[in-house]
Amino acid sequence: MSVTSSIAPPAAAPDQPARERILWTACALFYRDGVRATGIDRVIAEAGVTKVTFYRHFPSKNDLVLAFLVDRHTRWMAWFDAALQRHGNTPAALVPALAEWLEDEGFRGCAFLNTSAELGGSVDGVNTLTRQHKSDLAHRIEALIPTAGKAHPGTLPPPAALARMLCMAMDGAVTHALFGTPPAQALAGLAQAVALLPAASRRRRPAPAA
Prior knowledge:
The protein is built from 12 helices and no strands. By secondary structure, the protein is mainly alpha-helical. α2 crosses α3 (40-47). It is elongated. The two termini are 36 Å apart. 33% of the residues are buried.
């Protein structure tokens, strides 16, 4: 199964509830072609619903865009967690996990950054959902980093600061890959950031005591 099919909703089917068909169709089109380039009429046609049905579930395109981002967040984070687990669940797992996504033929960049770039503050909630996505991403990465240095405060940056640094390196890799940089080159900066972590911060967190 490709990364795209792991993250994106399944293809809409005629026997699904109308709201699911609309949302899943929009999720695929918005991510692949962009929000502004995807009109409501196209979503309605490809979802196989009437305009009345569409507006019953989504009073406006903006409502559909926000639902797309909420759905994307849930699916992307579930994939990301599984990918980290596959590669060892340490900071070193970030590069091979992200490589899975960047190398996938359906990769079109970060849906949140793309949508914020297209709509920005013109649609209430888009930037808020983007910030929340990035915050949740940082917390997941922070969970990879041991709380080393507690016994000697100041010897290491706190895990939250290290996680923010890694998030920024990840966003840089995603952006470069979107613009055509080969994934291995795009990920070089993230790999260097991981390598620069203090050795104690690269180790797996100890398992909690039983």
